[in-house]
């Protein structure tokens, strides 16, 4: 027997003896009792660990419920505070809306007062301008005398005697022989009217054309209105709740206004031509007719007054337009 076989035989012999002892212990139930004791010890340890974990779990569950209840109470308090704040804000908004409505009404009232005050101001300004013009006219009339007007000296009270210092030449009054003629200067015609030759000039046995053209001019004045319309875009003010637009020039407050030139013409007609102020609407209609090309503005003498009237297109071209009273 070699070493390897000897070693293998010895090992197997030891293993056989160990198996026999284990078999004997199992037959005598000692091994079973030991295993059961070990198993019961492990079970007891596990039960203790399980009870400890269950106790910790119960403690955590109670703490979680308590914390949840506390948070629910906090949320309920926050909700009540929120509702109170909402009610307070609603009341504040309602009060602010009432204030805004009252301010809008007040603003409308002030706007109406401003417009009325502005209208009264312009009316007073027009009356003041007319009064100043009348004062100037009356002052000029009062200051008229034989020295600065065509009024004869015999009509002036307390006049001083005018001394004639001219030397007598023996000539007759008026233009002297050889005095150059000073006619009115002709102007560039706006319209030329050809006058047909009369029937008697068609007799060639008596009348022969010279080739010259004889022209005479009739100069008149035509008043034509010039209307300037100002336009601007309109906007809606969401903050104030009304329509707004850019400011118009000074003096352009109403839909239709008279500028300085129109006021001057009306004042001139009233102060110089004795045209009453009640005829303002007539003058405006007349100006509209002139603008539309249906005639021109003229005056006729009626009981020492100048009454405005509209000339037809044919009459307007004959030089009858705008003849004022002296």
Summarize the model shown:
With 326 residues, the protein is mainly alpha-helical. Helix content is 51%, strand content 7%.
Question: Can you describe this structure?
Answer:
- It contains five helices and four strands, in the order ααββααββα.
- It is mainly alpha-helical.
- A two-stranded antiparallel sheet has the order 1-2. The protein has a two-stranded antiparallel sheet with strand order 3-4.
- β3 and β4 form a beta hairpin.
- The N and C termini lie far apart (177 Å).
- Mean pLDDT is 78; it is low at 298-326.
User: How many E-type strands?
Assistant: 4
The SS-based structural class is mainly alpha
Stretches where pLDDT is under 50 for at least 5 consecutive residues are: 298-326
Report the major sheet: 2 strands, antiparallel
Please bin the fraction of helical residues: 40-55%
Task: Give me the strand/helix succession.
Answer: HHEEHHEEH
**Total helical elements:** 5
Strand proportion: 5-15%
Sequence of strands across the biggest β-sheet: 1-2
Mean pLDDT: 78
Globular, elongated, flat, extended or rod-shaped: what is the shape? rod-shaped
Q: Between the first and last Cα atoms, what is the distance in angstroms?
A: 177 Å
